[in-house]
Write a sequence for this structure.
């Protein structure tokens, strides 16, 4: 059912490459926790975003791509929905992908807020993929991009090869740990949680694509 007076507007954003054999029916089943959360009866019914200027949930059958730029009203229980969707997408994905999820405090007004008060905005980066190696490759690429962007303020890009090599070593160790523990379906603590964003840095603007 639609959630009225929900404490959050929740924005889901990302692109997931899908296997060539994945059709609309399989994707609809995989995304069922999302569209059911929105109170819809099908993916087609629930694919539209709360905002008309967002494309919502799109299935590009030609490119075998799931595109999401979709907002729904909700609460913290949406995190369980995300867990279920990510597990389902792992079964459908052809490669690793990152999914950004932003919780906007619907009750917080920056102009009318009391001094010292903060919004309950939150930001989570989730990762999906057909196997741990694909997921870790996406995590690695995002981390390298962040590190380079930060350090290029102080160093030339040509000086950062050693830093990138150290990042690669960290991910190699993480992958070896996963394999040795046989916990292939569940990344170790810290690998699938927040990636940037969070509290204290000002409100993150809503995606407009």
């Amino acid at each position: 059912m639609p959630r009225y007076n929900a404490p959050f507007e929740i924005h889901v954003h990302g692109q997931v490459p899908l296997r060539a054999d994945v059709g609309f029916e399989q994707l609809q089943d995989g995304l069922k926790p999302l569209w059911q959360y929105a109170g819809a009866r099908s993916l087609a019914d629930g694919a539209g975003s709360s905002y008309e200027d967002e494309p919502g949930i799109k299935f590009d059958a030609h490119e075998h791509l799931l595109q999401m730029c979709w907002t729904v009203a909700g609460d913290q229980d949406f995190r369980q929905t995300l867990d279920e969707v990510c597990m389902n997408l792992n079964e459908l994905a052809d490669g690793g992908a990152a999914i950004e999820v932003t919780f906007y405090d619907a009750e917080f007004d920056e102009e009318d807020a009391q001094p010292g008060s903060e919004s309950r905005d939150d930001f989570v980066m989730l990762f999906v993929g057909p196997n741990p190696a694909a997921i870790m490759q996406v995590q690695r690429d995002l981390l390298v991009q962040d590190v380079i962007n930060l350090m290029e303020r102080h160093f030339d890009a040509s000086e950062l090869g050693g830093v990138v090599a150290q990042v690669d070593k960290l991910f190699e160790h993480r992958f070896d740990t996963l394999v040795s523990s046989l916990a292939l379906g569940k990344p170790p603590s810290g690998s699938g949680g927040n990636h940037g964003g969070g509290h204290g840095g000002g409100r993150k603007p809503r995606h407009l694509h």
Remarks:
- The chain has two domains: 8-110+118-130, 136-181.
- Residues 43 and 163 are 44 Å apart (CA to CA).
- The radius of gyration is 19 Å.
- Confidence is low (pLDDT under 50) at residues 187-202.
